[in-house]
């Protein structure tokens, strides 16, 4: 079992242990949560060299999540989030150095991720929660352009899709203020196209876009 999954598993067990004896005191939680925060690349997504390196920087995430309680302490959660992580331009700077006559521009990774899953929560005024979700990532790779000496090389932005999985844990205060963290796992496949003058090269690349997302929001 991976460390992230192990942590969420033990948190889930703790929630059940502490909430089951309080069945008579349960208060259902539900509503629309709007949130925003940091999107931190994890694993190969954050690497700047080596096979499968994503060369991504810290970015941001924003989204919404709707919780419907089935019974007190357990609910169905539907969510959607948009994430943005810039390509680490320091890599380009190191590659090109201070060569006169060369310039470059780099774009960003973006992703739209609808998900659904189950949430277990502590139905007290201040309580912790955990949830597990699955969904479908629709991502875009960064466009990268290098120009100089009368030639422009461009790696075009490409669309990538893949299944995605998320594990989240956090704290809910009064079914109003929510803060937490999510670990998103996905590996979209991109059909890349690179042009250099009159030459065009195409290839298919899988990029691991795993992120740790730290967020806060308000439930209505």
* Strands, total number: 13
| CATH architecture label name | Beta Barrel
Tell me the strand order in the biggest sheet.
1-2-3-5-6-9-10-13
The CATH class label is: Mainly Beta
Order of helices and strands: HEEEHEEEEEEEEEE
**Main sheet overview:** 8 strands, antiparallel, barrel
User: Unreliable segments (pLDDT under 50, ≥5 consecutive)?
Assistant: 18-24
Global morphology: elongated
Secondary-structure class: mainly beta
Given the structure, what is the number of helices?
2
Cα-atom Rg, whole angstroms? Answer: 21 Å
Average pLDDT figure: 88
Task: Estimate the helix proportion, in percent.
Answer: 10-25%
End-to-end CA span: 36 Å
Taken as a percent bin, the fraction of beta residues is: over 45%
Give the number of domains: 1
CATH-defined topology: Porin
Could you characterize the architecture of this molecule?
The protein is built from 2 helices and 13 strands, in the order αβββαββββββββββ. By secondary structure, the chain is mainly beta. The protein has one domain: Porin (Beta Barrel). Strands 1-2-3-5-6-9-10-13 form an 8-stranded antiparallel β-barrel. It is elongated, with a radius of gyration of 21 Å. The two termini are 36 Å apart.
List the helices and strands and how they pair.
Blueprint: H1 3-19, E1 31-41, E2 59-71, E3 74-86, H2 89-96, E4 103-106, E5 108-121, E6 126-140, E7 144-148, E8 151-155, E9 159-173, E10 177-186, E11 189-196, E12 199-206, E13 211-219
